[in-house]
Amino acid sequence: MIRRSPFLLLGICLPSLAVGNPLAQSQQLLVVLSDGFDAPRGTLYRFERRQSSSSLVRVGSPLPVWLGRSGLGWRSDPGAPIPPVEGPVKREGDGRSPAGILPIGEMWGYAPAAPGGVKLPYHQATAQDRCVDDVASPSYNQIVRESAAPSWKSAEHMKMPTDHYKYLVVLGYNLPKARPGAGSCIFLHVAPPPQGGTAGCTALFEKDLVDVLRWLDPKRTPVIVQLPKQTLTSAIKAWQLPTELAQLANTP
């Protein structure tokens, strides 16, 4: 029997982003900027506001992140906004993290419970849990429980022999109805030593990730924005992003 994650099937915890201003309801924002589409590293910034009509204020210190080994590519999943500038497009297996605006969903991890202070919905991963990356499978981009006769030829183990998925958050990419080939299993997860580019996720030092997880609050509709820094100004204009983000355009 296949057990599917209710988040991935039903869109639970995936906020509905308003057309015209995709961050209109969000009170918490993660912003990841890289030095270019092909850069496998970037910097994460946190912003928050007391209510949706307030100005965004930066929180905490910038944090180093590791992106896809090939860098970033514009979202190609259903509902993706028109890219503000030309650039590579995210595809399955291309080693690029999706560039754009993504909802922040549920958390998975190896332990029976999330670290103290974490408010995101939590699932403990077992040795049978998989995230399906086979584009021909009806379970593509779903987290499922492996069965005796799986419907896929390839899938990621949610409980790995390394600490990469010790803590992870599902990012709302190519969900809830997946477009075959647009990319799958996009997470915010741990970057264990010796760190390095990912297959398409965004990774942080374990301590930094736990700090971010404790800060995130699903009641505040958190989202993540990932962009090459040189596209930030164009994205703010094209997608009507908060103008407070412009301050990051000239950060070193």
Number of strands: 13
Look at the structure and give the mean pLDDT: 91
* Helix content range: under 10%
Please give the alpha-carbon distance between the first and last residues. Answer: 51 Å
User: How much strand content do the residues show?
Assistant: 25-35%
**Stretches with pLDDT under 50, minimum 5 residues:** 1-20
Main sheet characteristics: 10 strands, mixed
**Helix and strand run:** HEEEEEEEEEEEEHEH
Tell me the Rg in angstroms. 17 Å
- What structural category characterises the helix and strand content? mainly beta
Q: What would the principal axes of the Cα set say about the shape? A: globular
Number of helices: 3
Would you give an account of this structure?
The chain is mainly beta. Helix content is 9%, strand content 29%. The chain is built from three helices and 13 strands; from the N terminus they run H-E-E-E-E-E-E-E-E-E-E-E-E-H-E-H. The chain has helices at residues 6-10, 206-215, 232-238; strands at residues 28-34, 41-48, 57-66, 71-74, 96-109, 122-124, 129-132, 143-145, 155-157, 167-171, 187-190, 202-204, 223-228. The strands form two sheets. Strands 1, 2, 3, 4, 5, 6, 10, 11, 12 and 13 form a ten-stranded mixed β-sheet that branches. Strands 8-7-9 form a three-stranded antiparallel β-sheet, with no helix packed on it.
Layout of secondary structure:
Blueprint: H1 6-10, E1 28-34, E2 41-48, E3 57-66, E4 71-74, E5 96-109, E6 122-124, E7 129-132, E8 143-145, E9 155-157, E10 167-171, E11 187-190, E12 202-204, H2 206-215, E13 223-228, H3 232-238
Parallel strand pairs: 1-13, 4-5, 5-6, 11-12
Antiparallel strand pairs: 1-2, 2-3, 5-10, 5-13, 7-8, 7-9, 10-11
